[in-house]
Amino acid sequence: MKLAPVGVAALIFSTVSQLGLEMLTVLFKYVGVVLLALVLHVLLTYSLILKFGAKTHVLSFYKSITEIIVTAFSTSSSNATLPTAIRVTNQTLKKRSDLVNFVLTIGATANQNGTALYEGATVLFLAQFYNIELTMLQQVAVVLLSVVAGIGTAGVPGGSLPFLVFVLFSIGVPVEGVGIIMGVDRLLDMSRTVVNVVGDVALAAWVVESEK
Ligand code: ASP
């Protein structure tokens, strides 16, 4: 974990050295768009679920799960974060453990909102990069395939990359485009894993509330 920041910088450096500085600007914009989308998803979608579904104070909820957020960010793995997520959600939020354990365990593999969002944005980015105009129908297909990919993705670092290749291939975008985003993927992986895990915890809180 201590080496992670250096490792991420090294990965980005290798991409820049191969593709040039201009490419870095394009990649920065891509990373910015994905991060902004992830933040908006947490601030809007999850906050609404927490406020109106789980009927909890949104800010204190986020504060109480800081340990989960840090673990997800540093491990890039929903599965590795599962024990921490179960412990913190049960202890700190004092929710019903049978429901919490059930929802979080399924969520760790089948509820990957951040991943679905990232895949959609990445496919659109690569299509634009290769100057491929996607029809409305293809864009709808990207959304649907990304959601399915989010459900099927394993909760491990880089778990979504095989699905990303599959989605790119299905809509006719060159799959070697994955190599372009590889250098910055670790940072995005850390971020989307946080969104994936926070989504599981928010939904667990909602289910517990609805079962009262
Ligand atoms: N690392 C992500 C997770 O564990 C999966 C992925 O998007 O690659 O949730």
From TrEMBL:
SUPFAM superfamilies: Proton glutamate symport protein. It is a multi-pass membrane protein. GO terms for molecular function: symporter activity. GO terms for cellular component: membrane. Keywords: Membrane, Symport, Transmembrane, Transmembrane helix, Transport. The keyword Transport applies. InterPro entries: DAACS (IPR050746), Na-dicarboxylate_symporter (IPR001991), Na:dicarbo_symporter_sf (IPR036458). It is found in: Membrane. The chain crosses the membrane at residues 28-49, 140-157, 163-184. It comes from the Eukaryota. Pfam families: SDF (PF00375). Belongs to the dicarboxylate/amino acid:cation symporter (DAACS) (TC 2.A.23) family. This is Amino acid transporter.
